[in-house]
Design brief:
Helices cover 36% and strands 27% of the residues. By secondary structure, it is of the alpha/beta class. The chain folds into two domains: 2-55 and 118-293, P-loop containing nucleotide triphosphate hydrolases (Rossmann fold), CATH 3.40.50.300; 64-109, Alpha-Beta Plaits. It has a nine-stranded mixed sheet, sandwiched between helices. The longest helix is centred in the last third of the chain and has 23 residues, at 271-293. The radius of gyration is 22 Å and the shape is elongated. The chain starts with a strand and ends with a helix.
Length: 294
């Protein structure tokens, strides 16, 4: 089962919830930090990283001795990564999305495959937890290819033990843009972490709408539940979205967070609560699989 922990906005406690869930898993578990622009799951899980790989994307390099300046590569590029001025052709690697369309339409085979580094992919173990995260290069605007590589490496790579039914916890990027969509694609369940404030409710609605558009089952965890009002709870009831858990504000959790401690390390009484939550989600998932088979 793959569970994505997401939020419509930053600062809701998504990462401390996702890392704590990984620590509470009863069996084999993988933690994927897909917030590649600012990964911080490692601050709480403290993994021993054993692999460190450059991650590159393919970019076009024009072979000017072959180019006839027909403009077909420019015309197919939706991102304006190729521009043609008379007999001068220019490429803008930072704008290229590596769709490879320009390679397909060039009649003279005048485009070579170059590469551009956008970040690094790192993996290892945090105790019994398989850990993978990506870190984009400073100033990089396109993190989705690296995010997909994180998911592919963990879900389809050597760390997965299908016979043991490895549980995958995905820490999704905040917001509702392309990285968020890429993170929840192919997952089995989405946990939306929010806070009981007007901003929290506003962005929760946006995130829930995206999740529903992808027909993903989801539930809500309200963090710092006693510091706001009850509008989030009422909205969840109105929209028939399960309220999975309410976590009240606890100073010891905040202090532990500042020291890089997970929620279950700062507040051990939450461990059985999160274990029960995971068990319930996995049980429902297996029941749904069996119903689907029948």
């Amino acid at each position: 089962m793959q569970i994505a922990v997401a939020s419509g906005k930053g600062g809701t406690g998504k990462t401390i919830v996702s890392t704590s869930l990984a620590l509470c898993a009863p069996g084999p578990v993988q933690y994927l930090d897909c917030d590649v622009e600012e990964p911080n799951g490692h601050l709480f899980l403290k993994p021993e990283l054993t692999t460190h790989e450059r991650f590159t994307v393919i970019i076009p390099e024009i072979l000017r001795d072959k180019c006839t300046y027909c403009g077909k590569c420019r015309d197919i590029c939706r991102y304006n990564a190729i521009t043609l001025f008379a007999n001068t052709i220019m490429t803008f690697p930072e704008m290229c999305h590596s769709c490879l369309g320009c390679f397909r339409v060039c009649p003279e085979d005048a485009i070579a495959r170059g590469e551009r580094e956008i970040g690094v992919l790192e993996s290892g173990m945090a105790g019994d937890i398989g850990f993978v995260h990506g870190r984009t290069r400073v100033g990089e605007a396109m993190g989705v290819p690296l995010l997909r590589a994180v998911k592919k490496r963990a879900i389809h790579g050597e760390m997965v033990d299908e016979e043991k039914k490895t549980l995958v916890i995905i820490d999704a990027p905040p917001g509702t843009s392309c990285p968020f969509v890429a993170a929840i694609t192919d997952v089995d369940y989405v946990i939306l972490v929010t806070e009981p404030t007007p901003f929290g409710l506003h962005d929760l609605k946006l995130a829930a709408e995206v999740v529903h558009n992808f027909s993903k089952p989801c539930g809500v965890i309200i963090n710092r539940s006693d510091l706001g009002d009850d509008r989030v709870e009422k909205w969840c009831l109105q929209e028939n979205i399960p309220l999975l858990l309410k976590i009240p504000f606890d100073r010891k959790i905040a202090e532990g967070y500042a020291r890089g401690l997970s929620m279950v390390e700062s507040a051990p009484e939450l461990r059985p609560v999160l274990q029960d939550l995971l068990a319930s989600l996995v049980r429902d998932y297996r029941n749904n699989l069996q119903l689907g088979m029948k």
